[in-house]
Structure formats: C-alpha cells, structure tokens
Design a protein that fits this description.
4 helices, alpha+beta, four-stranded mixed beta sheet, 10 strands
C-alpha cells in the first residue's frame, strides 16, 4: 500500500471524551478502553476480524448508562474511517457478508457510497450483555454509518444476545474490510459520477 489510510479523531462533549485512531490496512491490533467491558471486547473483535489497527479511549458518563459512550465512539470511529478513506479511489466499494456465532447469525450489506443510510432488521434476545445494553449495538453501527458516509443494511437473529451482538460486530468488520480494499484493476473513484 503506497499511501497509508489512517486517521485520528477526538470528540469531547459534556457526556464523553473520546480519542480514536484507525488504520484501514492494519493487522487487527487493538488497544481499547471505554469502561464497558463487553464493548471493549466487541471493538477488539471488530479490529481483529476487519484487520483494522484501532485505538479507542473513552471517558464517558457511565454513571448514567452506556448509551453516550457507545454512541460517541461510533461517531468518532465513523469520522475516522471517513477521513482515512479519503476520496475512496480504487476501493471495491460494495460488500455483503453473513457471519454465524453458534445459534446466531448476522448479515451486513455495505456500500461505501458517501450517502449515509442505516437500516436494521432483527431484535436482541436479552436486553443486556453484562453492563452493555444490547440495543446500543444497533445504535453504534447507525452512528458509525452516518458519520463514515456508508449505506448499511444489517440484521441479526438468534436466541442469545451475546452471540447476536458479537456476530454483528464480526460481520460488520468483515464487510467493511471487503468493501474498503483497494482493487488494483481500478483507477479513480468507483462511480460513474466520478466521485462518492
């Protein structure tokens, strides 16, 4: 890779203080500290299965709940991915993945389009996994998609929320890895418009 596709983003609000770095063409290394153990595990899994090098530090208002921490990390990671991908020249652009984890299966279809959209089909079988609210997994990917300029259609089914959420993170990672890869056969941006 001749040009490093990497970025660093900070986000500071009255609710959170977030620092994120991402290298798209990484080796899956992650250093994560959000104060929410299961979320840390999911972000490390996201890095590992997407082969993204990732650092995340968040000091959030966990005395309230986990929502702001997870949402703001999603926003910051989305902004970092958007910056790291630049003009999206020569990327594959589209990807479609399904990933199982025991009884659960997740699906993610992604277009690195520059047109932010997010659609989700499914429900999580339990309301929490440890101190992580299951539905904020959906909100994390919505925040990421809207700030990275992605169109994402995601879904999950199963009977165990731990497996459902983990399958979703792994599936999204694999889909994003596929869609953001550079295709040596291409020149320029993968759109008839000439830009994304």
């Amino acid at each position: 890779m001749s040009e490093q596709r990497a970025a660093a983003v900070t986000r500071e609000t009255a609710e959170t203080d977030v620092e994120v770095t991402v290298e798209v063409d990484g080796e899956g290394e992650a250093t994560v500290e959000t104060g929410v153990g299961f979320f840390d595990h999911m972000l490390r899994s996201f890095a590992k299965h997407g082969l993204f090098d990732l650092t995340v530090r968040c000091d959030g208002d966990l005395e309230v709940d986990d929502h702001h921490t997870v949402e703001d990390v999603g926003i910051a990671l989305g902004e970092a991915l958007d910056e790291a991908l630049g003009d999206r020249a020569r990327i594959v652009r589209y990807a479609d993945r399904r990933v199982p984890l025991d009884e659960a299966v997740a699906s993610v279809v992604v277009d690195v389009s520059g047109r932010p959209r997010f659609y989700f089909d499914g429900e999580f079988s339990q309301p929490t996994v440890g101190e992580f609210t299951s539905d904020v997994a959906r909100h994390f990917f919505e925040s990421l998609a809207l700030n990275a300029g992605l169109t994402v259609h995601a879904g999950v089914e199963g009977t165990n929320a731990h497996h459902e959420v983990e399958a979703l993170f792994k599936c999204a990672a694999r889909a994003l890895d596929d869609a953001t890869r550079v295709d040596d056969r291409r020149s320029g941006t993968p759109s008839t418009k000439g830009e994304l």
